[in-house]
Structure formats: C-alpha cells, structure tokens
Amino acid sequence: MTRHFLTRRDLVASGAAAALCALFPGAALAVSSAQAADLVERMLVDINRVIDSGKSETAMIADFERIFRTYGDMPYIAAYAMGADGRRASPAQKKAFTNAFAGYVSRKYGKQFRKFIGGQLEIEGSRKVKNAYQVSTTALLRGQSPFDVTFFVGEKSGRFYNMYVEGVNMLLTERTEIGAMLDRRRGDIDAMIADLRRAG
Amino acid sequence: MPTLKTLPPVIAVLFLTACAVPGPGDAPDGIFDPQEAGNRRVHAFNKRVDSALGGGGEGGASAIPAPVLEGVSNVADTLRLPQTVVNQLLQARLGRATRNTLRFGVNATVGLAGLFDVAGRIGLPEDKSDFGETLHVWGFPEGAYIELPLIGPATEREAVGKVVDVALNPLGYFNLPDPERYYSVGIRAAGKVADRVAYGDTLDTLLYDSADSYAQTRNSYLAYRRYQIGDTETGAADYIDPEALDTEGF
C-alpha cells in the first residue's frame, strides 16, 4: 500500500520543513544514523530501569506500554499488523485497534523482557538501509548463548517500527497473529479487538 | 564393498531432485507450503506429544534442575561436533571447521567428556552446522515447508539433510559395542529435551499462546533457519519500508 495523496497535515509539515531548510541550509529533518542508535540506546536504558525497579508485573507492563508509545511508531506497527483488513476498518475501529494492540504488545513483550534480568543488550552499530536505520545489538543473557536483536528505525519518523530477534521479524509475526485472530472470529473486527484486549 | 550405510544419503539425494520450487505468487511472505492440510495434522499430533511431556506447563522435564539439563545439553552438543566439522569441511569453511575441532578437543577432555562447555568460555563459542546448511551452500533450493512427526518443522531440503547427517556422523563409524552405541543416541535425544526446556518460555508462547500455533511455528522456523544459514535471498528477507503504508486513522 502506498500513500497516493497528501493530507493537509503533510502539506503543513512540508511547508514547515521548507521554511526550516531555508533557515538552516545544513539541517535535515530526518534522523541520522547516530540518532537512530541513540534512540535505541535510550529505549534500552528505559526498559532496564523498569526491569530493575522491582515493581509489580501490572505496573511494569504499564511502563512498557508508555515506552512502546514513546519510542515506537505505534500507528505504523498497528497498521502493518492489521494488513489488508485495515482497509475495511472504520476510523473508530482503527483507533480502538491501535489502543488494544499497544496494550497487547506491552503485555506480550513485557513478559519476555523479564528474562533480561541480570542480562544486557549491547549496541554493535547502526547502518542506513534505504529509508531506515538498522541498529544491531547483541543480547547477553545469563545461561544462554549470545544472540542478535536488530531494531529498525524509520528515517522520517525517527521511531522504531520493527525488530528482528535472530531473524524472526516482529511485524510479520504480529500480522500473522492478528490475521489468525480475525479468522477465528470470521473476520469480525470488533470481536477481534475485544479478544486482543485480553491477549498477550 | 558398498555397505548399507551409503544407501540413505543416495536415496536422500535422489529425493532432493524432487524438491519443489515455488512459482510466482506461490510463496506469499516467503512461505511456500503446498501440503498445509497434512502439515497441520502432523502439527496437532506434535503439539499433543509436547504437552503430554510437560510443554506449556510445570512438571515433566522442566522439573529437572537447570545445571543437570545444561550438562546434558553440553554433552549432546559435544557428540554433535564431529558432524558439524564434517559439514563445515564440505562447505569449504576451513576456519570454522578448525575452531570446532579445537572446541571438541577442549570440551571432550578439560570439559569432562563434554559435561562443561569450557571452550565457550575461552573464545570458542558454539557454532553448529548440518547437512541442510551444506546443501544450501551447494546451491540447492529450500523446497516446501514440512512438519515432521516428533522432529518438528523443516523444509524439504532440511529433511534430506537430517537423513544424510545420520550417515555422515563420524561417531557412527567407530564400531562401538552395543550398549555404548545406544548411549550416544540416548544422550542426543536427551539433549533435545534439555534444549526444549531451556527455550521453554519462547516455545510455550509459540505453541500455546498464539492464535494459530501452526502459522507462527512455520513463520519463526523459516525466518530463524534462513537467518542461521545466512540465506538472505529466500522469502521474507524483503525490506519493509517504514513509509509505504497508509497509517491514516491508526
């Protein structure tokens, strides 16, 4: 799916961008490779702070949701997960889905983060691939061989939109999951959203 | 004189020529699964076996203390090393074959017959290979996705690789007396159980917490396997564009 038309917000943004570029000829709006690595670094620091806080699981998951929404490109991740079914969703359904989805990924991945207690993620470097940055990290967990986690940061959004854990792609996994949840409800979007609020 | 041992690889390679290659549009998202209905039945069976063995809950093998499981996993890994070395030689990866030979030497001696992964701590980490990877290096296509009873997910190419690996295993050529021969097989099977417990949470999520465990297992297996053998050309390695999506309203 490509975007075929400019929204009013895009026009305002590009107008503002043009004005900014005129003022600061050297400045680009898009993030740099170092900024992408920095975003991932700050996100990892925040995640570690939550893990070390010793809060209850419910409180931690609320914190993870805030982190997801701050550093992640939530509308993009949600739209990708819904796939072609997103085209027949009403604006209200889309909003409700994004909210339910943010809670679901926070619960699901938040539980995985518990394994990181006493472990760490080391940033190896970042490189530009087309209109995104790939930030490579190595996860060092107690009692396990090190493994690769790669974060993808959009050049334009400056937020992370995908992650690969040893080659397994989060966006594809979640699109498969949402597709299966929709199939189970025979394509009923509202019923799927209700299920999603309890899943993860 | 040709022995029966040479027979499985010959048959297996004959099967390879029958590896299906997807036509255009046959592999959406990099998944080529023409036998999905049959695979789903095998998956349901495997899942029943897994949960009978304690998967998805407490008890079963997960009740065994972690250090014991780690030891079992290490011994099984050491027993697999000669097979890895043979395959890396076949792939012309001499550096990795040499490092794994050293790894075998260290762990089989200082590591007390493989019980402790001493080599991993002195800069010779685990680096597995198998005949499925060798076939990839030689340029054979992946073929269709299949789920094998008890063994789990595979592709046609990996299934052939598994058969050949049994015949390639150098330990199989030592004429061990009967009980020891079965110990080796037993330890390798126990190693699989130990690994299942070690990756328990991840696999439990995949098998018991997903809306369609078959589709998620297939997804993860194919992505992980392609990543493991460095196959960046097949399927879902496609670039995902962070701007090419209408996010209006989300």
From TrEMBL, chain A:
Q: Where is the signal peptide?
A: 1-30
Pfam families, sorted: MlaC
Q: Which Gene3D superfamilies match?
A: Tgt2/MlaC
Keyword Transcription listed? The answer is: no
List, alphabetically, the InterPro entries matched: MlaC/ttg2D, TAT_signal, Tgt2/MlaC_sf
Q: Which UniProt keywords apply?
A: Signal
Q: What is this protein called?
A: Toluene tolerance family protein
Q: Which organism is it from?
A: Salipiger bermudensis (strain DSM 26914 / JCM 13377 / KCTC 12554 / HTCC2601)
